[in-house]
Amino acid sequence: MSEGVYGEQATGRVTHSLLRLSTAMRSQAWEWAEGAGLTPTQGEILVLLMQRKGPMRLGEIARETALTAATTSDAVSTLEGKGLVEKRRALDDGRALAVRLTARGRTAAKRAAQWPDFLSKAVGTLRDDEQAMFYRTLLKTVRQLEVQGHIPVHRMCVTCTHFEPSKNPKKSLHRCALLDITMSDTDLRLDCSVHETADVATQKKTWKIFAQQA
After folding, report:
1. Does the pLDDT value for residue 5 go beyond 80?
2. Do residues 184 and 210 lie in contact, with contact meaning Cβ atoms separated by under 8 Å?
3. 176 and 93 share a domain?
4. Same domain, yes or no, for 19 and 84?
5. Spatial contact of 102 and 85, defined as CB atoms under 8 Å apart
6. Residue 117 lies in a domain
7. Where is coiled-coil annotated (predicted)?
8. pTM of this structure
9. pLDDT tens digit sequence for 141-175
């Protein structure tokens, strides 16, 4: 069997496996949502607002969740009707509306953040080195999907101006110059609140070092 054919078959198997994971996640998300009286989309918005720890404009929510403006507006309006979020004028622009969680919304968001626990338990059965490799692979996949424009850009360590990738992970760890901490692969953040996007040249250099590591 040629290497090209084998590679195509391997890609297909990986893709099929990811689709099966997607099916399980969608099923679990709806099961949780039905019990909570919400939709998975509404739960996702609540969790996003909780993670950002502050008001967000509708456009920001739509961009971060990859939803249309209409879908975002409808979901937020429903959440507002349930008393889980409230709209206020944005502090930096009185013409714009910002959405924030209410006390009830924070409680609901904490519950919503727990529905993927079934997946955490499955991943937890992997050895530490397997989890590290799995996470590295996921980061590389997420990055490619961002570059291709299929998912929103995340505030991840590997695109941050403060990130210093290890050139030899067997001997040294990655470093965040801003927080002055060292990090292994599994410490790298997919969404960091102090993220500052590096310029294109720096991103390419950083990513080349990170992606080529074994």
Report:
1. no
2. no
3. no
4. yes
5. yes
6. no
7. none
8. 0.74
9. 999 998 888 888 888 999 999 999 998 877 889 99
What is the number of other CB atoms lying within 10 angstroms of the CB of residue 164? 17
For the record, the structure tokens of 197 come out as 């996007």
DSSP calls for 51-120: HHTS-EEHHHHHHHHT--HHHHHHHHHHHHHTTSEEEEEETTEEEEEEEEE-HHHHHHHHHHTTTTHHHH
Range of the domain at 188: 127-211
Same-domain status, 22 and 99: yes
| Residue 74 to residue 66: CA distance in whole angstroms | 14
What three-state secondary structure class fits 180? coil
Q: What is the CA radius of gyration of the chain?
A: 20
Tens digits of residue pLDDT in 112-122: 888 888 888 99
Angle CA 132–133–137, to nearest 5? 120
Query: Residue type at 39?
Result: T
Tokens of 204: 């390419």
